Amino acid sequence: MTIEFQVEGMSCQHCVAAVTNAIHEHDEAAQVQIDLASGRVAVESAQPTDTLKAAIDEAGYTVTSVTSVTSGSTR
Fold it and tell me: The domain containing residue 13 runs over which residues?
């Protein structure tokens, strides 16, 4: 399942690496895509949403919204 997080506080590539590493601590196989300009973090993972949100929060960033998108969906 793909989960999209809207994240505040990311401003540079260090932030991207910190969020990516925080997610990988909970799921090494997770696919993470971050759009720094919009603050969107898309994660393909089998981990619960709450676990991934907590990882981002613990890295020092603020999750303002969460959207679950099933794989293969179109927008």
Answer: 2-69
Q: Which two tokens stand for residue 68?
A: 């679950």
Q: Is residue 74 part of a domain?
A: no
pLDDT tens for 43-63 read 999 999 999 999 999 999 999
Number of domains in the chain: 1
Both tokens of 7, joined, read: 């994240």
Residue 73 has pLDDT above 70, yes or no: no
pLDDT given at position 68: 83
Residue 75 lies in a domain: no
Q: Residue holding tokens 């179109």?
A: 74
CATH of the domain at 43: 3.30.70.100
Return the axis-axis angle of helices 13-26 and 49-58, rounded to nearest 10°: 140
Euclidean distance between CA atoms 47 and 49, whole angstroms: 6
